Amino acid sequence: MSVDAAYLSPSLPASIGNEADATPAPRGALGRRLAVLALRQGSLAVFIGVLVYFSIAAPFFLSVDNIGNVLGQSAIAGVLAIGLTVVIIAGGSNVVTGGIDLSLASNMGLSAAVYASLVQAGQGDAVAIICALGTGLLIGAVNAAAITLAGIVPLLATLAVMNVVAGLELVLTLNTVIPASTEFLATVSATGPFGIPVLAYLLLGFTALVAAVVQYTPLGLRLYAVGEFPEAARAAGLRVKLFISGAFLASGLCGGLAGILSVSYLSGSTTGAGDMLLPVVVTALLGTVFSRRLVPTIGGTLLATLFVSFLINGFQLLNISSTLVSGVQGLLILLVVSATTLLQRKGNQ
Amino acid sequence: MAQSSFKAPSFTVSVRGLARYALVAVFVVVFAIFSAIAPAFLSGANLLSVLVNNFALLAIVAIAMTFAVAAGGIDLSVGTAIDFASFAFVSLVLAGQPIPLAILGGLVGASLVGLFNAILISGVGISPFLATLGTLFVGRSAQQLLTNGGNPVYLPPSSVPEAFRFLGHGGIAGIPVPFVVAFGVIAGAYLILSHTRFGRVVLATGIQASVVRYSGIALSRYTAATYVLVSAIAAVAGLIVTSTVTVYIPSSGNAFLLNAIGATFIGTTLDPHGRPNIPGTVLGVLLLSIVANGLLLSGLNFYWQQVATGLLIFSVLAIGFANRKAASRA
Fold first, then answer.
1. What is the predicted pLDDT for the residue at B161?
2. Which InterPro entries did the record assign (chain B) (predicted)?
């Protein structure tokens, strides 16, 4: 169906982890396949189960209005998580030395601040959009240069960039809220056809676009190859550093886009964008569970974003304390990762 | 031909030798610049306040982080350990328990966080980044549940015993207690990491875990102990913070996280092999502390300070990693 399924048999990643077991018994591979299937279907089943429970417990939950709102509210986090997913795909699953972009949330904050400041300064939407996206792209370029040219580990490079970017946002906004309202912003935050917010359409459209490129084109296939087997990718003639740079540029651009969406959603730039970072990281990592081979995919990330948003929404509708949300997120990621790890370990035996 | 191939390595060695001390050089330069532009910087009172207010707490957390990074992992939940220590400490003091018991309670509270990490990392086999990220989130929720949705727990002055004040504001032979404690933690950590079997195993795990396993060492036990130790060290910072400000604020410990990671990795540039090491971490914390203080004194716009700090960390890392890259190419 996609890159995800076609390009490797499920038994391969297991054998990479342990060179002594270059050829796992077919039976074990089958067992693992079944277990992976169970995990993936299981998590989908949990997702659907939670939705069904909320719909019964809170009738308003299933209304078009509510679903549209949740989709709209997920747009900002969704775009950020998709940017991070691209970086994780290209950088590999080792989060310390591989793909991670800690600067994404502050990137969004600065891009939003740039947009709002330009609007305040009397500039038009076109200029503001270009500058906000340019800000995001520039941050992505700095990350890319630090990682591929200076050779700094992504975790640290993006950590340092995050500090600089968050500082620049403070310099620009003096830690205040900059209101911005233009026709374009009003259009984006308005309600579109069928009573569903425009932001929801934007999220779905953006996901479809990125998913099309990442999951269904040769470019996307190579991106996975670079992330999972950099040595093999290099041997096959792929320019690994170029792909990694591209991934960070793409994620920077996502930060800029998320900035524009947040200016529209909040009618201005606000402080505290950095708080989005860890939830976005968790969401992007959670997304792997919705893919067939337990790898990061764009569709999986969208599902994970929506899952978390629906969970928060359902808790609100049922008057359950929202303080539980971060705990549920934490437990989810631990459950998912434990299950995946145990499966891989089983595959190795 | 033979001559040139002799020359090449000696040249790289000297460049590497120089770059290795880039951190020391940056530190000296930054120190000199601040002394020149901000006269108050060099005063004894100011330097002491840097050591007590900026350095001591971050140093303790960064030392904790160094153990996790030395073992080839990372601990994103040091803030959670700080918070749990702080919460247990405040609760026990409020309940009228003696201070030594409250301190013990704080250490135990934080060690539970470490134990949770240890089970996830060496029991289940989750990567440290993900395991401790999960702990961070679960810990945040747990604290909100314990405090009715995240309300700070204040210690009224009437219920604060004298011994409590001593921890945050007292002095031993004129030296403030937080600094004495930080010094003790640094010295202890140095001894453990470079002079004990445990330290050697931790360092070896970070370099090549499989070799440790094949050497017949119970790797998972050492890893588990490492993460409990990380939380216990971080707890010390939580106890000092709490006794200084006499309040527990849920999830406030995370403020140290990114600086602790930064200091630890800045410190790795001091080691010829780029390994985490205690002196490097201490120098990294010192650098971050004097930068924070010096920028404040130099009258630079408050908001530019974060930019400057970020740029500085960035340049030290860039020099350190470019150096390592050159070394691996040579």
1. 72
2. ABC_transp_permease
